[in-house]
Amino acid sequence: MSFLVTIFAFIVVFGVLVSVHEYGHMFFAKRAGIMCPEFAIGMGPKIFSFRKNETLYTIRLLPVGGYVRMAGDGLEEPPVQPGMHVKIKTNEQDEITHIILDDQHKFQQIEALEVKQCDFKAGMFIEGVTAHDQERHHFNIAKKAYFVEHGSLIQIAPRNRQFTYKKPYQKFLTLFAGPLFNFLLTLALFIGLAYYQGTPTNTVDNVQGNSPADKAGLQSDDTIVKIGSHNIDDKSDIDEALQDNKDKTTQLTIKRDGKTENLNIKPKKIEQQLTKTKTETRYILGFESQTEHTIFKPILSGITQSVEAGKLIFTAIVSMIASIFTGNFSFDMLNGPVGIYHSVDSVVKTGIINLISWTALLSVNLGLMNLLPIPALDGGRILFVIYEAIFRKPVNKKAETTIVAIGAVFVLIIMVLVTWNDIQRYFL
């Protein structure tokens, strides 16, 4: 039963993170007028699909990411290439309206064509030898034209609906929107949890045994109003005061049963492992706070937690990159789908609240990792857009395609190595 719960939780977590990321890309792409032929969750063979308007929504077998296929983004190849034999249907202006690649549609007045040259990005034409006269002809592609393949009509994007021909700011927003939506998901999850759980206050709920708070005599329902010279109004003030005071003995001023009392307390120093090479020092008293449900505090709490999560993940990423140059790098620093599944298995056993918090951390991690300047990732492609904005011309298309392809191969190799490392680490 627990196995099924873990599988279900993994599918939900993976599906939410990838869907939100890719929806961010598609949301801004469509608002920029870019045609999006496919929205996919997962990679590999298609296991489910449906079409809405011009976009095919698919779920694919392998849980290793997802994508939005955008017309003219340089990552797609048209299904028609020189040397192929196709059938075409034209309009009254002798423009191609349908390129027929199968026999599942019964079109009238079509022409068989051997393709000699074609351009579906800039020139929007096909040249080829027609069967009826064995002569070479040039056909422009109509503004509204389709590939007819596997029983479906797939619209051919005109120039004005291709990613390539959009302004740099539209390209930037489209590429940055994926990570942006991951950050917004993190914010939404933390705010939602804060509304559900309430926000911590400076009033004690319960005291941990043998903790500094227990030894100092702190009790349930005590309200902390001062630590040393720091006035305390809420839980965040306590954390700031302890970081400033560190582990030195200090005076704790509390309100108990309407009276003010002073206690001497020495905070406990703890080291929290952030990454393999970096730790964070914190100071605690050893008690849990009471919570309150208000209108605005959960929003502030969610923002604070999101920023802290971003700082935590950013620090881990920087540390990981630095470890490559110091020789301390290990694939244990990275998690692929297998590692994420194992983490889900561990976290889901601690409850839905921890699973949601962990999903929020994963979301900001996905956003930041995608902003790395690796050509196949959003960050690498954003660099090309910045170059275009600065120099008023796009990067040479062949060079860009080659660089992105190399980046894609690099990411694929890393993914394979990380997955194999995860399998060895957790199952062998």
UniProtKB/TrEMBL annotation:
Keywords: Hydrolase, Membrane, Metal-binding, Metalloprotease, Protease, Transmembrane, Transmembrane helix, Zinc
Gene Ontology cellular component terms for the protein in this record: membrane
GO biological process assignments: proteolysis
GO molecular function: metal ion binding; metalloendopeptidase activity
UniProt KW Protease keyword: yes
Domain PDZ, chain residue ranges per copy: 204-256
Record flagged with keyword Nucleus: no
Domain Peptidase M50 stretches: 9-413
Subcellular location: Membrane
Top EC group: hydrolase
EC number: 3.4.24.-
InterPro entries listed in its UniProt record: PDZ_6, PDZ_sf, Pept_M50_Zn, Peptidase_M50
Membrane topology, as annotated: Multi-pass membrane protein
Residue spans crossing the bilayer: 172-196, 312-331, 351-372, 402-420
Highest rank taxon of the organism: Bacteria
Similarity comment: family membership: Belongs to the peptidase M50B family.
Protein name: Zinc metalloprotease
Organism: Staphylococcus arlettae
